Amino acid sequence: MRSFLSHKKSDYFICAAVMLLLSLGLLSSNKYTLDILITTVYFCTIASAWNIMCGYTGQLSLGHGAFLGLAQYTSTLLYTKMDISPWLGMLAGGLTAMLLALLVGVLALRLKGPFFALATIALTTILEIFAVKFDGITGGSVGITIPYNPSLGNMIFKDYQPTYFLFLCLLALVLLTTIYISRSRLGSNLVAIRENDLTAASLGINVFRNQLYALMISSFFTGVVGTLYAQYVLFIDPAGSFSVIVSEKAALISIIGGAGTVFGPLIGGILLAPTEIFLRTWLGSTYQGAYLIVYGVVLIFVILTIPNGIAGTVSAYIRKCNCKTEQASGDD
Amino acid sequence: MKKLSWFLILMLASVTVLSGCSSSTPANTAKPAEVIKIGVIQPRSGPLAVSGEDSYWGTKIAIDMVNEAGGIKGKKIEAVVADVPNAGAAQNEVNRLIQNEKVKVITGIYGSAMAEVAAGICNRNEVLYWEHISVTDRLTKQGYKSVFRMHINGSLFGEQAAQIAESYAKKIGLDPTKATVAVVSENGDFGKSIAAGVDAYTKKAGTKIVLNELYDSKTTDTSPIVLKLKASNADIVIATSYINDGIDITKKSKVLDYSPKIFLGIGSGYGLAAYGKSLEKDAEGMIDLDPTSTPVLKNLDPNMAKAVEEFQKRFKAARGYDSPTVGYLAWQATWVLLNNVIATAGGTDNLAAMIKAAKELDIKVGSLPTGAGVKFDESGQNTRAVISAMQWQKGKLVTIYPDYLANAQGIMIPLPAWNKR
Amino acid sequence: MLLQLIVSGLLLGGIYALLSLGLSLIFGVSKFTNFAHGDFVMVGMYMAFVSYGMFTLTPYFSWPLVMLGGVGFALLLYLVARSTIEKSGLNQILVTLGLSMVLQNTVLLFFKSDYKSIPATFGSSIKLGTVFISTEMLIAFVIAVVITGGFFFFIKYTDTGRALRAVSDDRAASKLMGLPVNLLDPIAFCLGIVLACLAGALLMTVYPTTPTIGSGYNLIAWVTVVLGGLGYLQGALFSALLIGICETVSGFYLGADLRQAVYYVLFILVLVFRPQGLFAGLGMKKVKR
Amino acid sequence: MLSVQNVTKRFGGLAAVKDVSFEVETGSIVGLIGPNGSGKTTLFNVISGVYPLTGGTVTFDGRDISSMESSRVANLGLVRTFQIVKPFNELSVLDNVVAGAFQRCRNRDEAEDKAMVAMKMLDLAQYKDTLAKNLTLAAKKRLEIARILSTDPKMIMLDEVMGGLNPQETEQLVETVHRLHELGITMLIIEHKMKCIMELSSKVIVLNNGQLIAMGTPQAVVKDPEVIKAYLGADYNVESY
After folding, report:
1. How far is the C-alpha of C128 from the C-alpha of C6, rounded, in Å?
2. CA-CA distances (angstroms) from residue B151 to B129, B165, B197, C12?
3. pTM of the model
4. What does the alpha-carbon distance between residue D158 and residue D218 come to, in Å, rounded to a whole number?
5. Above 50 in pLDDT, residue B30?
6. Of A322, C8, D7, D191, which one is least surrounded by beta carbons within 10 A?
7. In chain B, residues 184-213 whose CB comes closer than 8 Å to chain A
8. ipTM of the complex
9. Which residue has the higher pLDDT, D226 or B3?
10. Is C267 on the interface with A (CB under 8 A)?
């Protein structure tokens, strides 16, 4: 089952333990190891943010790339053109992403299933086209290179540890928010909406408004982590920023890990992000695209056999064990 | 929940171990000083993989040939190959090559986004970055110390293209200041930087640009573009395209019975084998501006000529078709890198020596198969990279301009109407 | 000029009609959301390419092979997706996204990423007044029209067609009436995918192909289906033509780099403000879900 | 408490509910009966805001709710169950009820306590951690009631909650409804089981073909010739126990 609604304080403990383990990476100074960790945490965070909207409410967004890209362009342009520190740019990026989410939500949230997904894909593509078209502002398809001036204020660092640390903080923030939401009224409402929106409304849950909140929170974090990633790679371009692939990956990671669970996206990210890198390194240079076949097959397999993902299946198993012991003592 | 947390912890531990392993193994296997490691990055999957793969083979064949000739100072070259389909992968793989594989030289890449990311990281880590394809101007305008580009940059490309256009205009008796030019370009960085170069040059030369249109290269139907060209009634058309759109523009030109006096195609759109194959006789007379892919061997230094011949043979064996321009670009860039830079510097251990060797290079124009020479300016841009005009004649590309590279005479200039071809 | 643009657009739209009809049918009958539809177009293109390479059959002659292959791929899709029919639409999307990844990259593995094309058979054009019509496009268009006509005949006048319409109209009721829904699903899949593959084969006469070309066609197919109104087969037909015209006209007047944006904006507007499609209520008989 | 005035609902040209007016007094239990397809559920949907109404007004607790969304209607304290049970299948019973309870509380502990109270009242406490989809039909029906109960409603509308239950289960549920009534909750009940209606309601409304054909005490209504004709005219499906 989807144990999104966690009742236990132990979630905070797990969260702390995971963060502690991940932060062991800070001891390494190997940039490749750190890059893998950063990429992993980046995808964990995006997937977790995606999960807040989509795992909860069951609305499939393939347009988180739109939020990501808009935020990246906001912060990068603020930094490169007006010299505003990425620390502020990060917030600005998150907020613009949120504004876009508000607009998208008002327009598209009444759509269901494939149509919401399609509308979000279309939106991402439109933004990409505009980013290419209005090259006076965005630099067009050539993208923007962020000058390498390492300093704390510029959020650019010589070594990767500080960046990794920032990513970890963000992941922790998203996880804590997720845990908090999962215990809150919003979480309860969202899950109710996912299960049956008509019934949810009949209980007094405003379907539209709750979904909108979720979308805005989700897009905010997506935007923030996107700006951080831009400051890490030091380069953005329309094709990379407004990419449907990023959204697809977020979805893939969440779903394989267990969409609608607190730790599903984390598990998915930790499993898939390094796997992708290793597969690309091993297979990529001899069998073009072979790692994507593996990805696709895994996705199909997971959806068909364990639609609740790893976390969902594991916790269902745990529940089963608990139920057995309960049934032994109680009647019925 | 407890079990879940154990599960998580276990998984994390295994990931840590895994990434630990991957970072420690190469250190054990690296045998110092026996081989010279060179990082080779190309997009070998994803949307850029076609030309990425051609470029990869260009580089690989150059390395193989150097190795078979005994390597550099007795040391074999080992290519550490990475598939880099996007900017994120560039970040990851370049770090892997530098950190784990301990390469000191990286060469690549088809795709400017990846080139920019790779060059940035290389420069920061004091690794030589040797670019052989990407044309974005900005790559060499960031003040990087260890970044060199063998290929021409976009604005020079555009400038030379406009120059070629001008010279052809003169040839057919058009006054450059009265002739009209239409520029259509795919809206990626390639098309845009070239369009900008053309624009800058024609302004100087006083030629009038009557249409400057960008389009999406993924577009399926180019008839609106051809109709716009037709409506503009320009004497000269300079079109920058990838292959799909390039083929379609030509097809639609025929369908819509459009032939300007001079049509200059730029980029893979008009130069790849697929172009000739799918257009057959309709390709006849079409001009492609690019570094030549039909070198005139007798003009080259005999040793170079032999090497180029060998390369052509191997490329055909590996890929099944004659090397396109990117193959030559990759091959000659790698060839120069190995024989003239690394060999002079005595290996890859000393970055300063390699930079010095590169900066001191003085190879005259026409020495390399694409007609280029090598002389880097302060920013690391090769100032002696040239483009040429190639033309489809009897199903094959031949070089018709400049004269010192030409192996055939230009035909069908100005272009006759379609029914007279 | 406008006339020329409209004619070019119509010709393009004719081929779009083939891919969207198939999508519309599968969506109508099986309530199945296929996000890999464009990839079947790509597969169709490659099948046409292979038949040309192996037997020098142009797509005008290799269509039986393409159809046969299409049936095979349809059954593959059906096998993979069967368990998600009548279940969560979300899972259908995800499964087909996964399938799309597998298809694209399998093709990449076997054919590499080069552009594959076959030489034009005619490559000329016909001039009607001031309007030029590409022979290739015209033939493709005529074939598309014939296939579409045949398809509508099949849907209207055969028992299977009637059954498909009934299931499309009301799946639950059709089940209660004893219609073999489990048999009709694979039939709808086969028809739909075969149409997509045929569209691919026709496109192959005009455009080169690469493994990733399908994503674009996938979106076009969906845009068309939504504009036409879900499950309205005739609607899909008209909107395909409309999209074709919209592409050429906006490409000319607005700029060739904005034309995708035009129909995506149109798409979003229709989704949000007129979810029943552009043509609903215009006296069109519905083959609705 | 609830006043329905001249309510009409059309689907296309077809009027599912025609010009229906009635009142539900505070603290009463009103039964709503009629043959299949007579428009009972449509009336529920119109009152609870699932469908917008075509004509007429609905007032609840002194406020016009005619054009209100269902979630706002529910927030005012008027909630309903569905004829075909719609539990949140993938959630535990507790989470199902908590979803309702959260409409009145801010934090989770409070919501859980409230939910437990409602669950105890409906004999669901022992299934706390069971997934809703694994419950028996009877338990699912009780779950529906527990869920709406936890929203602290002023009035509830029950749509055939006894349908498909065996006599014993029915009896238990009637018991429960009585207890809820004692808590001061006003009720409007659709029910086919005449015995339950007779036992529970103080007033019965009869719909046929979307029109109100009779209203009054249960005893009076069953003797009404109009009503008998309606039921005999349609399939005679008033279950007799």
Report:
1. 14
2. 13, 21, 15, 39
3. 0.88
4. 17
5. no
6. A322
7. 187-189, 192-193
8. 0.85
9. D226
10. yes
